[in-house]
Structure formats: structure tokens, C-alpha cells
From TrEMBL:
Protein name (Swiss-Prot/TrEMBL): Trehalose 6-phosphate phosphatase
Gene3D superfamilies linked: HAD superfamily/HAD-like (3.40.50.1000), Trehalose-6-phosphate phosphatase related protein, domain 2 (3.30.70.1020)
Similarity comment text for this entry: Belongs to the trehalose phosphatase family.
Stated role: Removes the phosphate from trehalose 6-phosphate to produce free trehalose. Trehalose accumulation in plant may improve abiotic stress tolerance.
GO process annotations (BP): trehalose biosynthetic process
Reaction it catalyzes: alpha,alpha-trehalose 6-phosphate + H2O = alpha,alpha-trehalose + phosphate
Source organism, top-level taxon: Eukaryota
Source species taxonomy: Eukaryota, Viridiplantae, Streptophyta, Embryophyta, Tracheophyta
Keyword line: Hydrolase, Membrane, Stress response, Transmembrane, Transmembrane helix
Chain segments annotated as coiled-coil in the UniProt record: none
Length: 362
């Protein structure tokens, strides 16, 4: 069997997830922690102050969350990678860790399965990556967990055998009939923020109106949440953009503002995030309290931290952060970027299949 680099890379990451001794190495202080905490504090302050927070805090936070503004210190990076080793170098430990466990795979979309690009509507998954995900889903229950609207992420991925959790987990749907890994045949569906739909639509329209004068700004309707993109906005206009967003949402205390990669996100205040989505899916699959499950979550953004944290709290499974720069994270392992797949070794799929076979023989 000829295996492409992308397939082996993704599978390698999954395979690494099966490593036992790899689970949750201790969290250690980072050289780059201060900078990270400054950014975190800024956002916390912003969130704590609600919609009336000082606009400077938002602007500072937008600036601080743009890693391209500062080249990564080699020392910082080396220290970080020591504690979050590359998921690609851990193949040896696969078999041992996977023994007797059901692996469940969770994949973020943007920045994980697709590279970050300027136009959010053109963040396509490659054919190779789609094939890799398809292959992984043949072996394990597999879910895509994204900030995007579920329908949009489905249109990119187009694999009906997967679980999809859109709107940061607020819109979950199971695979098409005939593909389910669950016992029983009920459709999995979870939409905990339904009542917010009219409000989100209203705010979407207001945001479109308010930011249309800012060149490069883009508002994306993710159904149960909204994204205001500033990747293509000149930095000197970021303050104005933040101003406009805060102006709109100040009348909606039921909505909160969070941040992603050059994006401001507006979402309901309900306590539901990617971590809850992960737990919901594990429960739907029948693994709520099980010790025999190994959830693997691969993601790149701060919203993925909610899922990494759940894994850490469960003391089960493995988080892999896709990031080129050191970041404070609850993930145990790292990958540099989606295309790092090309560093992987071809025998990985063999390893995954072997692990599955071992399990089947037990
Ligand atoms: O949870 P995810 O699947 O990672 O989605 C998070 C956001 O991803 C998208 O925005 C990001 O990717 C864009 C395309 O590469 C990029 O232009 C943007 O700057 C990034 O923030 C998506 O467009 C958002 O709606 C998602 O919330």
C-alpha cells in the first residue's frame, strides 16, 4: 500500500495519541509564559468587564494575539518543545498504549485540517487530508469540532461518516445512517443554544452594517455564534473594528466576546464549549465513565484548549496542539502545522492497523 505524506502524518498524530507514557507530561513553567499571560489577562479583563470593557484592552488583546508580530525566540521554542514534544517522534510507544482501548478521534478544522488562509471561505481541505480523515474514520469514531457553522464545515470535508460539532460545539450531529459507531440507531443531535438563534441573526445584521466601512473586515455567520475577521484589516484600523463590535454587543449581555486567530467571536454566554462537545460525544458513544477509551484531540486555537482541559481533567486521552510558536496549553504534544504531515514515516498506518488488530484479538 502506498501511503501519502498527509495520510501518514495525520495517522502518526493519531498513533501518538495511543501512547501510554505520553499521557499528560507535567505542565511546566514556560520561558514565554509572561507574554502569554499578559495576553490572557487582557482578555480575561475584557470578558470580566462584560460588554463595557475598555476598548484599549480589546485592541491590546487583538495585537497580542498576532504571533507574527514577534519572532519566536529559539530558546523559548526549545524549552517549549521539550515539554510538548512533537507528536511525530513518538511512534515507538503506540502499541503499548492502545492496548484494550477504544480510540475516539476529535479534529479541529481551521489550522488543523486546513491551513490558515486570508479568505475564510477558501480554507479548503486537501484531497489527501480528506482521504487521511476518511481512513482514520474507518478505524475509529471520528468527529470534527469547529467554530464554524456545521453545514459549512461539512461542505468543506464532505465525509458523511463523521460526527460534526459546529459553532464551537453548540451544534452537534452524528454520522449518516449506516455509519454509526454507536449501539442503537438514534441520530445524535445537540443544540444547546437554540434560543439564541434570533438574537445571533439580529447581531449579525448589525455587525455587517457597522463594519462595512472598514476595508478587509468580514463578518461570518456561524449559526450559533459569529466571527468578525480582521486578518485582512490594516492594523491601524483594528481599534475601530473592535470599537464597532463592542458598540453592537453592548446591548446584548447574553452574548460574550472571545478571540481566535485574527478573529473576534461573539457567542452565547451559556457554559458550552468544545470541551462540553467532546464529553457529549463520548457519552453518546457510550464512553461517559469508561476507562477503556482513549480520546485524541488535535487542535490549534484557544477554543481547543477547552477540549484539552477536559482530557486533562479526565486524566484520559491526549491533546495535540498544532502551533509553530510556544503557547501556554493543556495539550501534551505538538505539531508545527497541518503540512507537518509530510515529516511522517510511511509505516504509521501499518502501526495504527496493527494496534486495532491487537485490540480485536484481545
Ligand atoms: O474551530 P476552528 O475550526 O478552528 O474554527 C475557528 C475559526 O476558524 C476560521 O477562521 C480562522 O481561519 C480562517 C481561514 O484560514 C482565517 O482567515 C481566520 O483568520 C482564522 O481565524 C473561521 O472562519 C471562523 O469562523 C472560525 O470560528
Amino acid at each position: 500500500m502506498v501511503i501519502s505524506d498527509t495520510q501518514s502524518g495525520l495517522a502518526m498524530a493519531i498513533a501518538v495519541a495511543m501512547t501510554e507514557s505520553a499521557l499528560f507530561p507535567p505542565v511546566v513553567p514556560l520561558v514565554s509564559r509572561n507574554r502569554y499571560f499578559t495576553r490572557k489577562k487582557l482578555l480575561k479583563k475584557l470578558e470580566a468587564n462584560g460588554n463595557g470593557a475598555r476598548i484599549n484592552a480589546l485592541l491590546d488583546s487583538m495585537r497580542a494575539s498576532s504571533p507574527t508580530r514577534r519572532p519566536t525566540d529559539t530558546e523559548d521554542h526549545n524549552s517549549w518543545i521539550l515539554h510538548h514534544p512533537s507528536a511525530l517522534n513518538m511512534f515507538e510507544e503506540i502499541m503499548r498504549a492502545s492496548k484494550g482501548k477504544q480510540i475516539v478521534v476529535f479534529l479541529d478544522y481551521d489550522g488543523t485540517l486546513s491551513p490558515i488562509v486570508e479568505d475564510p471561505d477558501r480554507a479548503f481541505i486537501t484531497t489527501e487530508m480528506r482521504e487521511a480523515v476518511r481512513d482514520v474514520a474507518k478505524l475509529f469514531p471520528t468527529a470534527i469540532v469547529s467554530g464554524r457553522c456545521r453545514a459549512k464545515v461539512y461542505n468543506f470535508v464532505r465525509l458523511s461518516e463523521l460526527y460534526y460539532a459546529g459553532s464551537h460545539g453548540m451544534d452537534i450531529k452524528g454520522p449518516a445512517k449506516g455509519h454509526t459507531h454507536r449501539k442503537g440507531n438514534q441520530t445524535v443531535l445537540c443544540q444547546p443554544a437554540r434560543e439564541f438563534l434570533p438574537m445571533i441573526d439580529e447581531v449579525y445584521k448589525a455587525l455587517m452594517e457597522n463594519v462595512k466601512y472598514i476595508p478587509g473586515a468580514k463578518v461570518e455567520n456561524n449559526k450559533f455564534c459569529l466571527s468578525v475577521h480582521y486578518r485582512c484589516v490594516e492594523e491601524k484600523k483594528w481599534g475601530e473594528l473592535g470599537d464597532q463590535v463592542k458598540l453592537v454587543i453592548k446591548d446584548y449581555p447574553q452574548l460574550r466576546l472571545t478571540q481566535g486567530r485574527k478573529v473576534l467571536e461573539i457567542r452565547p454566554t451559556i457554559k458550552w464549549d468544545k470541551g462540553n462537545a467532546l464529553e457529549f460525544l463520548l457519552e453518546s458513544l457510550g464512553y461517559a465513565e469508561s476507562d477503556d477509551v482513549l480520546p485524541v484531540y488535535i487542535g490549534d486555537d484557544r477554543t481547543d484548549e477547552d477540549a484539552f482541559r477536559v482530557l486533562r481533567e479526565r486524566g484520559q486521552g491526549l491533546g495535540i496542539l498544532v502551533s509553530k510558536t510556544p503557547k501556554e496549553t493543556n495539550a501534551s504534544y505538538s505539531l508545527q502545522e497541518p503540512s507537518e504531515a509530510s515529516y511522517a514515516v510511511p509505516q504509521t498506518f501499518g502501526g495504527v492497523e496493527e494496534a486495532v488488530r491487537t485490540k480485536a484479538l484481545e
